[in-house]
Amino acid sequence: MKLKQYFTEKQEEMLSLIEKLVNIDSGSYDKQGIDQVGAILQKEYEQIGFHVTVHESDQYGNTLSIKHKDAGETNIIIVAHMDTVFPDGTAKQRPFSRDEKRAYGPGVIDMKASQVQVLYIMKGLIEMGSDAYKNVQIVLNSDEEIGSVSSRPIIEKLAADKKYALIVEPGRADHSIVSQRKGGGRFTLTVHGKAAHSGIEPEKGRSAVEELAHKIIKIHALTNYEEGLTLNAGLIEGGTSVNTVAPFATAHIDVRVVTQEQAEYVTKAVEEICSKPDVEGTRVELTGSVGRPPMFLNEQSESLLKVIKQAALEYGVTLKDTKTGGGSDGNFTSALGVATIDGLGPVGGSAHSEHEYLELETLVERSLVLAETIKKLS
Question: Which domains, ranges and CATH numbers included, belong to the chain?
Answer without folding.
Answer: 3-181+294-377 (3.40.630.10), 183-292 (3.30.70.360)
